[in-house]
Amino acid sequence: MAVQRQLEFHDYVRILRRRWALILLLTVVGTGVGYTMFRVLPKQYVSMTSVLVQQPTVPTDYVKPVVTDDTNQRLAAMKQQILSRTRLEPLIHDLGLYRKDIDRVPMEDLVARLQSAVKVDPVQAMAETQAHHLPGFNITVTFDDARQAQQICSNVTSMFISRDSQLRQEQANQTTQFVQKQLDDAKAKLDEMDNRLAAFKRRYLGSLPDQEQANLNLLMNLTTQLEASTQALSRAQQDKSFAESMLAQQLTSWQASQKGNNPQTLQQQLADLQSQLSLAQAKYTDNHPDVIKLKNDIEAVNKKIADGSSLKGQDDPGAGSQAAIEPPSIQQYRAQIHQLEQTIKDRQNEQSEIQKQIGIYQARVQSSPDVEEQYKELTRDHQTALDFYNKLLGMRDQSSMANDLQRRQEGEQFAILDPANLPDRPSFPKLTYCLGGGFGGGLALGLGLCMLLEMQDSSLRSDKDVEFTLRLPVLAMIPRVECSRPKARQGKNELLLTDSSTSRGMRVRV
Length: 510
Fold this sequence. Notes:
Among the domains are: 212-386, Helix Hairpins; 459-510, no CATH class. Helices cover 66% and strands 9% of the residues. The chain has helices spanning 9-40, 71-82, 85-95, 107-117, 146-203, 212-259, 266-283, 289-307, 309-315, 319-323, 328-407, 431-456, 463-470, 486-489, and strands at 45-54, 118-123, 136-143, 413-418, 474-477, 494-499, 504-509.
């Protein structure tokens, strides 16, 4: 057949009629090979379990979990740890896996074979739930023994659950210990800040910013007290001056009377006393002690004048010894002057003390801006340390509650949703797949071989083949004639070909 010509549907039908035996044979052989493979290939059993990632029973608004890493990442990390040689090699020995190969195959190859038999597939959350956490995952174990496949799946699942619980507990403990260490450091720093602040307050007691207004008020009160003390001191000094002048007059009069050359009489003394009383009344009220004393002296002089005691005193032989004693008025003036001196001294001491206090409070008020700046810096650092300490204290309490929640198994944890099943039929090979594969492979091989044979066959089977190959028109076709002779039955159709340009013809066996 000419391979260059495009085949049509009836051409394919003719090919199938000619090659149907070969196609059928290869199809049957392929189906048999598939069945043989089903019988010969080693059986593989699949055991699967589903693990659910349970969310915390206590809402995260009340107790925030200390383990906040993504479940997918934690699952991938646990997968690397659990499927490591450290974990799988004891499992191979405990379950007696690969007994035929354990003595002649290196352990690394057996571990790699078991690793390839275990698959961990995360379960994706449904789109309508809009959940961001991992709902769960499936563990699938493919092995050549159904019971061992179930045991491997159960053991691997248990390792995942125990490792997750252990990992979360370790992370919770480490977080709590870290927060406690930070809390201890923050407390030590806060104690240091407290000591510094207390020492600063002791050093600048009275000059602190919150005492500035009190210092100003005290300063104003001290200023008022100083003015009052100054006025009292001035008044005492005036009283002293007046008493000294009165004492001098009394002494002059008394001394002159003692010498006998005193020209004054009792009437003159009375005039002097009345003059002094007028001055005292102009300065003091009637209840003042000096005014009262002068009135008493005037009354005594009047009494002497009335009784004539001055004449009796001159004739009395003992008058010389009594005259040497100062009169009560002079003694009273001396006592008054002494009292005024003591008052002046007290007022002066009071002034000095008040001025000293004023100096202290003025210094406090003047140093208040510098002290306030240092105090603000200390209180700011202290407040920062206190806030940090309180924050860590809350984190420590939160971590402790989360740790207790984890110990009570009320936090996020893995739970077996479907335990590992015991497979009752192998997952590979499947009879349907083997027979279907063998049938399809044999059929494809038969069709392909038929096409290859047809492509190599150069026979001319139709007028189109002749026209395409010889590029000559076909005038007529002679059908095959059945002959009685054996050789005639083996003949082929002959075609009569003519060339229109030369009017010559030729016969071609078909």
